[in-house]
Design a protein that fits this description.
435 residues, alpha/beta, 2 domains, 7-stranded mixed beta sheet, 5-stranded mixed beta sheet, binds pyridoxal-5'-phosphate
């Protein structure tokens, strides 16, 4: 039988009832801005009490009031129209505020259990904003093995503006108590620290600082609020490089400062310092971090599961002299990690037996799944040489004081199959050149 082709008539065209504009469209169209489904509007109130995985998906995000878009629109506008000189819709200029940034700030406030957050263009600008809260002639106590960029900024402020800075081992609480001066206004904690994964007892330091009128700031980049909530431990401020785990996909740079619940005035000052310095985060970047947050819980679980396997294998390998990972029972502060963290994270560093330059370079160059690159916290595993990369801005003396040797290698464990990662490491370690 042969089919005969016949021309279509108008009657043969079936209008899609889901396409607006077709005569058969079967939904009632509300004007933009009409009230959304009742459940949506109740959700915002529920998020602060929800479990972390639920918070990650829903914090800061409401279906868009204009059209009900499930993901917040990217308000890619530098400026916002006024109705008259005294009336606008809550935003006037994107440096001072933007709806997409506000959504991310709400999300981070909830995840950290804070009273307000401000999002900045990079992690470094978050640190800059926090330091700009200090009055002139202040003194800061800072952990001796902080991120190299933090050290560089503190040193810049010391030389350019006369900021007084003391770097010390914050694990030594007696030394910390002795180091306070009448003008000490801030204690800067990084726990776990970069790259040696040393921990600071946040609650103990916050108690010391509060009694002396100083703010406690914690750089929480290495763990994210899912694995550590410094504000619950008494810190006043949390700082993040959202470039890392919070975004998680190595495709954006960003930062955030979150103030504690009781610090509402401080939260407002942080927002205005961000505005005056011009360090606010761009709307598109905020959107990307918000998208990253939705999978934070599942990513952190996978990162940490991989790190546990890698750390255990490295610790048992004859070519390894030391492994620094708070999740190992042998880590000197493992008990503190258990007490103040909800997990051990996925950053670790290690040193080779006979860690000559040639042997270290062999590992850095031979690995296949670990990309030799700065940064951390993305889904892909990275390897770095802190002395010549992340901490190159420290003087050799400062690195020596911090314990960062030339043979230290840092790993950021991604979410690849852990067996592939350990096979890669075993291959690189098994072919080391002689010492
Ligand atoms: N804080 C820590 C612990 C870091 O590791 C970094 C960067 O690596 C920063 C802050 C700075 O963040 P950013 O690179 O986003 O400016």
């Amino acid at each position: 039988m042969t089919a005969t082709a016949t021309a279509l008539t108008a009657d043969d065209v079936h209008f899609d009832p889901n396409v607006p504009g077709n005569p058969a469209y079967h939904f009632t169209i509300l004007p933009p801005g009409s009230p959304a489904q009742a459940g949506w509007t109740q959700r915002a109130g529920l998020v602060p009490d929800a479990r972390p995985a639920t918070q990650c998906v829903h914090a800061g995000v409401q279906p868009d009031p204009a059209y009900g878009a499930v993901m917040p629109p990217i308000y890619q506008s530098s400026t916002f129209a006024f109705r008259d000189v005294c009336t606008n819709a809550g935003f006037d200029y994107t440096r001072s505020g933007n709806p997409t940034r506000a959504a991310l700030e709400d999300a981070l406030t909830i995840l950290e259990g804070g009273g307000g957050a401000t999002c900045t263009s990079t992690g470094m600008s978050a640190i800059l904003v926090a330091l700009n809260l200090l009055p002139g002639a202040s003194h800061v106590l800072c952990t001796v093995d902080c991120y190299g960029g933090t050290f560089r900024l503190l040193e810049h402020a010391r030389v350019a503006y006369g900021l007084e800075v003391t770097y010390l081992d914050l694990a030594d609480l007696d030394a910390v108590a002795r180091a306070f001066r009448p003008n000490t206004r801030m204690v800067w904690i990084e726990s776990p620290s970069n790259p040696l994964l040393r921990l600071t007892d946040i609650a103990a330091i916050a108690t010391l600082a509060r009694a002396r009128g100083a703010l406690t700031v914690v750089d929480n980049t290495f763990l994210s609020p899912l694995l550590q909530r410094p504000l619950d431990l008494g810190a006043d401020l949390v700082v993040h490089s959202t470039t890392k785990y919070l975004n998680g996909h190595s495709d954006v740079v960003g930062g955030a400062v979150v103030a504690a619940r009781g610090q509402v005035a401080l939260a407002q000052r942080i927002a205005s310092v961000n505005n005056l310095l011009g360090t606010s985060q761009a709307p598109h970047d905020c959107f990307l971090v918000l998208r990253g947050l939705k999978t934070l819980q599942v990513r952190m679980r996978a990162h940490e599961a991989g790190a546990q396997v890698v750390a255990a294998c490295l610790a048992a390998h004859p070519a390894i002299r030391a492994v620094y990972y708070p999740g190992l029972a042998s880590h000197p502060q493992h008990a503190l990690a258990r007490r103040q963290q909800r997990g051990f994270g996925a950053m670790l560093s290690f040193e080779l037996v006979d860690g000559t330059r040639a042997r270290v370079e062999h590992v850095l160059k031979t690995l296949r799944w670990f990309t030799l690159a700065e940064s951390l916290g993305g889904v892909e595993s990275l390897v770095a040489h802190p002395a010549s990369m992340t901490h190159a801005s420290m003087t050799p003396e400062a690195r020596a004081r911090a314990g960062i040797t030339d043979s230290l290698i840092r790993l950021s464990i991604g979410i690849e199959e852990p067996d592939d990662l350990i096979a890669d490491l075993a291959r690189a370690l098994g072919s080391l050149p002689p010492a």
